Amino acid sequence: MSIDTTAQAAATPDAQQPWSELGLKADEYARIKEILGRRPTSAELAMYSVMWSEHCSYKSSKVHLRQFGDKAPKTDALLVGMGENAGVVDVGDGYAVTFKVESHNHPSYVEPYQGAATGIGGIVRDILTMGARPVAVMDPLRFGPADAQDTQRVLPGIVAGIGGYGNCLGLPNIGGEVVFDQSYLGNPLVNALCVGVMKHEDILLATASGTGNLVVLFGAKTGGDGIGGVSVLASETFDADGPAKRPSVQVGDPFTEKVLIECCLEIFAEDIIVGIQDLGGAGISCATSELASNGDGGMHVILDSVPLRDATLSPEEILMSESQERMCAILEPANLDQFMEICAKWDVDAVVIGTVNSSGRLTIEWQGEQIVDVPPRTVAHEGPVYNRPFSKPASQDALAANSASSLARPTSADEFVETVLALVGSPNLADKSWITSQYDRYVLGNTASATPEDAGMVRIDDSTSRGVAISTDCNARFTMLNPYLGAQLALSEAYRNVAATGARPLAVTNCLNFGSPEDPSVMWQFSEAVTGLADACLTLGVPVTGGNVSFYNQTGETAILPTPVVGVLGVIDDVHTHLSHGLPADDLTLIVLGETKAEFDGSEWAHVVHAHLGGQPPQPDLEAERQLAEVLISAATEGMVSAAHDLSDGGLAQAVVEMCLRGNRGATLNLSGDAFTGLWSESVARAVVAVTSEQSAGLLALAQQHGVPAAVMGTSGGTSFVVNSPDVTFSIALDTLRKVHTATLPALFDH
Amino acid sequence: MARVVVDVMLKSEILDPQGKAVERAADRLGYSTIASVRQGKRFELQVDGPVDDAALASIHELAESLLANTVIEDFTVRVEDN
To answer: What dotted CATH number matches B2-80?
Structure first.
């Protein structure tokens, strides 16, 4: 096979090239020719097509994402902001943490186990690349209806893949979400979050500087897996094309990743590298072009040096391969021997594939011929940017007008009991331990709190009691009703969940899962959601440190519910003071903090009981959210409460039932107003706390000091969940609640 | 009774971590001529009645739907002599 060299490309300007099949548009191909002053070689075409794909270039989202930078609140905590592999925040005592959430939706649909597994592998390498030791992972998941046939196929595989890879790596999986909704049937969402810890001075950046420095590829060999995965998998919808056109997926090897982590950490500790980049989507194309354009701007790579698993691979395939568990480092020649010694000790293959220079060009040779000669910035950072048209969908006003207020509500005691049980046992609110017990939550020995608590919490190091708490949230029904407010509500809930464990919210990451950006209605949802989130982050003083956009989540023409998953990270000085939600004793007073309004549109009740979605979501109140957080954080630090739980999906009824089941004791609620509103409203900025008689006065005073309404609503004790109100009085035995709450997922998936 | 064997192998472009582990172990044990190892699964099916085209078609279907994950694996079906 002849090699398509740069000389040949210049000599044959009219050769036909498969730019369209590689996902490039005519004007994009024309721009590549303009940049190069000739047609691209096939290797260059491969690089541009994959790096200019939606997944790598953010070409449709960039103009909107700028708001996260423009509206970023002033904070000293942010050490590295958006644009690097992951953001880094200061958590005190010289420690920094880095965290990020990414999507692996399409690969997980095609091959659930390996798709979800390599999703973990990829995000862990992103965190490692910042110089941090990965310490925990989390997975926000979305599936079609729990009883749908395809959910039966994808859910067990995805859960096993997350558990398999994460457990083998020895990383605790401390939280996440599992949500079922019709819109995800045929397009499940598999988001993966990782958090890592380092000292301030250990932060590393993806840069290739220093003329004469070496480019070293290390880790697994390069094979033919996942070729075109980025441009094809992440950019096209699943339709009737059938399995034949499905691209091959990647298979991960967590044990290789584990030694790669340890090898990298030893290399970092020896301080012998200038820059580092992980190989994820777009493989060597991405790593070399990003490293070069972030550094002195020039690099020469000899592609024949890349160790191959399959000797028949073409240079284009080598450039695009997404083989897992690979890293690329830049180092001074003087440090090469030491670098190689460390790699040999960990049994990690390492080979020099190129050198840094000051040419301003990324040049790649293959069998002695030059096959790539490009300005690296045009590949990595100066891809196309689209101002895609967006417009509010015609159906949006009708959706907003269709409130849940006219839906039939329970009136008799029997109907109230039925409603409690229907919600407690519904797939979205049921006990998730069938899933989470497949993950190791406590490995490494630093986990202070994990699923089903409001947020996962780990100590950042053995030598300290300082910890970080993380929660990811998104109620996509709210985002559907109003994307601007829905995104703010996602932040609100994650912020509240972190505060409810006693940690102070510090920074935000996000994974924005949407349909096709070519659909103006989807683009409108996206634009509204980003604006809403950026505005709310500014108000709450928590900057977005990074994240990921996943478009084309749709089946045919039908997009998923807009799902901007928001992750909030908080810091707690002493994990021993963290709050959990189980009721620890009898005769505690239950106090509801915050104001309860009659807000049912988009609620879990409307969804479960009436399969209804319409109206306006609960009104966010960020100031109230901030004050509530102050109360919860102070209460935790001062030991002023015995348990705390945020109120969100399923309202007060769900929260108190969960507190009862977790603490294995009953509770009695004495509601003064409308029982239905009291039990199932999903108003924001609320939490329920349990206090002893000694703690009570202090907590009430603290709430008053922060202007947070506090109402005594009940007591703990007994073996039933009891509700007394002017309208209705009922009682449900804990045994019944537990049976209903825990039976749902095993009945669906345990076979 | 006829025996039909279904061999399932990871597709050639797919990473085989188990095969790789065996390959490394073989090398450590001194079997230096082993250049590469790929590991697969073998299913032996005892079949009632004649192994005709219909029987083979049904085994093919079984392999496709249950024995192999055709997203990442290939399989072959062959009849063994008794």
So the answer is: 3.30.1280.10
